[in-house]
Write a structure and sequence with these properties.
- The chain has four helices and five strands, in the order βαββαβαβα.
- With 115 residues, it is an alpha+beta fold.
- The protein has one domain: Alpha-Beta Plaits (2-Layer Sandwich), CATH 3.30.70.1240.
- It has a five-stranded antiparallel sheet with strand order 2-3-1-4-5, covered by helices on one side.
- The longest helix has 14 residues.
Length: 115
Amino acid sequence: MLQLGEYHAHIYYDAMSKQTAMDLVQKLDNLFNVEIGQFHDKPIGPHPTGSIQVTVGPEPLGTILNWFAQNRQGLTIFWHPNTGDVMKDHTEHTIWMGAMPELNLDFLERFVGKT
């Protein structure tokens, strides 16, 4: 059984929607105790577009999922847990809000079997 722990929310954006993503992250940061990563304007890792990562602990997860569902302003948000199985975390254990672009799973292959 999957243990509830830390999750990453990757907010996807492009040049036209970056300001929307920035505003959304600012609101999120003002409301919740989350860890905000860096804005990446180009694809990084398995992510097919620009993104910013938000780390969410298990305690506020349901509340933040609900908040994003109501406030994502059309942005795609890709959620995954951090269980130590990087491939399953990015394929089987995911939550998508919005479009579901294809991830670059080849990038993750180098991490399979490593913790």
